[in-house]
Amino acid sequence: MDRTKVLAMLTVLGLALVPVAAWAFDEPFWIDLFARVAIFAIAALSLDLILGFAGLVSFGHAIYMGLGAYTVGILSYHGITAGLVHFPAAIVVSALAALMIGAISLRTSGVFFIMITLAFGQMGYFLAISINAYGGDDGLSINRQSDFGSLLRLDDLHVFYYLVIVILAALLWLGFRLVNSRFGLLLQAIRFNERRMNALGFPTFRYKLAAFVISGAVCGLAGALLANLTLFVSPSLMHWFRSGELLVMVIAGGMATLVGPVLGAIIYLMLEHVLAGLTVHWPAVLGAILLLIVLFGKQGLAGILLARKKVKEAKPHG
Known about the structure:
Elements: H1 3-16, H2 18-24, H3 29-51, H4 62-77, H5 83-105, H6 110-130, E1 140-141, H7 157-179, H8 182-192, H9 194-199, H10 204-230, E2 232-233, H11 240-253, H12 259-276, H13 282-296, H14 300-305, H15 307-314
Antiparallel strand pairs: 1-2
Helix pairs in contact: 1-7, 2-3, 3-7, 3-10, 3-11, 3-12, 4-5, 4-6, 4-10, 5-10, 8-10, 11-12, 12-13
């Protein structure tokens, strides 16, 4: 089996064992912390699809997480609590937003693409601030988790945690299938030489737009899960700083690896949690650690962990 897939399986297995470790060490807070980690891993994974495989540097990706979260919050505010409405609605709203934003921003490239996605992200942020009916800058509280009846009790943290882990595992599996399909291979070819792909007759714009929409939909799902975890949504979810965090998770973990964003989310949020308890200057320390990871591994943390395989393959056979 491919070493990257083995690393992904071990990572998911490690996350699945967190509740056991929390029980053994009497640290129930770990479940809440790692639920947040897994949710951000899903968001980072969605970004890796367009950043790592299509070469699209989106600096406004957090808008889809915010839209997913606000969809759950607004529906709950109006008395609609059904989970079978919340989650599909969050995915559809985020996908439609990605379709609109992608249809405009993908007509540019390079720095212009980065700036347009940043502009859309900030538009979403300021729009959320301006709607006082849904809390404005103060955010919106949610009375209860999405209701799936007796099928799933999301108010039980253990049930919710394993739901997130199952979704993460399913998305990793689908991600590996997608990037190794004809669609995924074409995305990677577009990343390396879009002009040649256009010359060969491939509709590169449509492929990139499809990837952009899929990425936005998955990030919206992460937002819906986050809203259920915190029972609170705020405009800060759409701020450019949050988009920057997702970029850092993908780059530090390892672009175009799928498991890299998951590792990036784990290392980023765990270091943030630990360092914040040690010093008020934790961002500087965190930045230095992430810089070392990127310097010593061209593919981030995943590249470091998988480096032994590359060394072995480079050895001559005798």
